[in-house]
Amino acid sequence: xxxxxxxxxxxxxxxxxxxxxxxxxxxxxxxxxxxxxxxxxxxxxxxxxxxxxxxxxxxxxxxxxxxxxxxxxxxxxxxxxxxxxxxxxxxxxxxxxxxxxxxxxxxxxxxxxxxxxxxxxxxxxxxxxxxxxxxxxxxxxxxxxxxxx
Length: 149
What we know:
This protein is of the alpha+beta class. It is built from three helices and eight strands. It has a five-stranded antiparallel β-sheet. Strands 2-3-4 form a three-stranded antiparallel β-sheet. A hairpin with a 3-residue loop joins strand 5 and strand 6. It starts with a strand and ends with a helix.
């Protein structure tokens, strides 16, 4: 298994961070990496997701929701053509550090017979996409917090 994982500390309570993360309708307004998530988010549901790596064409996918653990973790699994070729288990986790600070963990586990070769090609751009989303997520939440003060 191959993995890309990023994280960032956000000045926010867990509930506000979770609600912002799960407000998929607002993604086109702020998210530079995940341009669209449509569909129900219950475990077993299939989503319509559009990813956008910098300077690349958008990629549409239809991953299956694996985990939606309220306020802690949202995870899906997508595949390239058929399962076992190149699969990606994308995850978002939120961990409370204290009442006003959370750690956002954003990553993906890659498996399948083409995972190694494909990951060599996309690893840097994918990690940059994760980090761009993380920064935008942090900025959005912290700006919301400032307007509440």
